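[retry 2/3] DNA-3-methyladenine glycosylase I: previous attempt timed out, resubmitting with same input.
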Amino acid sequence: MTTAVPGPDGLPRCAWALGSEEMLAYHDDEWGFPVHDDRRLFEKVCLEGFQSGLSWLTILRKRPAFREAFADFDMEVVARFDASDVDRLLADTRIIRHRGKIEAAINNAGRALELVAEQGSLASYLWGFEPSAAELGEPQSLTTSPASVALSKDLKRRGWKFVGPTTMFALMQAMGLVNDHALGCVTREQVAQARARLPRPA
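[retry 2/3] DNA-3-methyladenine glycosylase I: success.
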């Protein structure tokens, strides 16, 4: 069982959040709080893909540059990126210069627009994969789940890239589709309350 540990202010938090000020702020203000804005959801999908094989702190520190380089993750703009944009991004030392991940983000923007046209919003689609409490184990005990496997499989069927089950479970944690804060973490109850208040997208 994963339990919380005291933070710098004495309040209990997830242990992973205590390595830096950036991670602590991300943990306290963002991680696990429910997101239903399509642009921010698309950003999370892209950044979780870029994070594959790297630390989240690396991505978090580069996030402002990613937002600038990828037009603040406007799906319509990114979907129109061409070979010259790929070259521009590969030359941008502020971001992760991985051709496969860059091309995946551009491809996924187009696939996201198709999904929005079909489902009404990216949020309504992703929240449709919200798992039941019975499906999940103890907090922070899983790296995949039946829901993340199903989400990954369906996105791949739709032509998305860099959306494996582990990456999609990380997305589910980050966007509040699950509340995976450690037991006793001061933020866990805040996330639970925010999830309870959120009207699920139709």
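[retry 2/3] DNA-3-methyladenine glycosylase I: The radius of gyration is 17 Å.
[retry 2/3] clearing retry counter.
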